[in-house]
Amino acid sequence: xxxxxxxxFRRAAxxxxxxxxxxxxxxxxxxxxxxxASKEEGLAAFETVRAVLQHPRCQNCHIPGAxxxxxxxxxxxxxxxxxxxxxxxxxxxxxxxCHGTANLPASYGAHMPPGAxxxxxxxxxxxxxxxxxxxxxxxxxxxxxxxxxxKNLDALLKHVDSDxxxxxxWSPGAGRDPVSISHDAFVAKFKxxxxxxxxxxx
Length: 202
Ligand code: HEC
Ligand code: HEC
Prior knowledge:
Oligomer: single chain
Bound molecules: heme C
Structural class: mainly alpha
Shape: globular
Largest sheet: 2 strands, antiparallel
Helix content: 40-55%
Radius of gyration: 19 Å
Number of helices: 9
């Protein structure tokens, strides 16, 4: 409460927003330029983040099982594709056998293997599961640096802003719907959640 009050005070004291911007920038450099947000605003912003993370284009790779999923219905990937020991597929059936570093031209039609640089799953010891979790579970798992590959909030923000596998969700290739919320709106809500202190629902 104390922190929120002091941020509100700064906002009130600086109608131009300069001080308020500075307060956010000092905490999270990557989130600079975002107005301070209350815990409630942060929790609301996370619901948009959640809708993206749990969209089929994202959660089909962020799975608890041994095989990636396909399509909006999340069906088990065909061809007996498996995660393997490092997320790149089983020996002899690496993701890169079929998935290139970019989508194939739209003229090839639907059902082509989509592509993006380094197409793979998280490794089995850090699965980074998004699918089937409550808002609070998803939020806590996302922030857990032992589970997410050592990413603090700043690193997470950079990841969702510019990682190639993330960006693929907005240009997923012919026959697949992109994530339904725009990438800009997603990143803006992610920043708002971070600036609010990255609160999680119970
Ligand atoms: C082809 C599989 C694949 C797709 C599709 C994918 N990811 Fe990931 N994601 C990964 C891998 C692998 C990692 C582990 C980090 C790495 O190796 O870059 C990861 C890591 C992450 C992380 C950090 C881990 C954590 O739990 O904090 C976030 C956040 C994330 N992805 C968000 C997304 C979003 C958002 C989308 C959809 C727009 C998406 N991912 C789509 C494979 C994928
Ligand atoms: C034998 C070829 C082959 C291999 C190996 C393969 N894939 Fe695929 N994958 C495909 C094809 C083809 C599609 C498109 C299916 C369609 O749209 O009908 C696809 C689609 C996908 C999708 C679906 C995207 C979506 O949202 O619907 C994901 C995710 C995926 N693959 C992940 C992987 C991962 C991760 C690996 C390695 C562990 C892998 N694939 C290995 C051929 C392959």
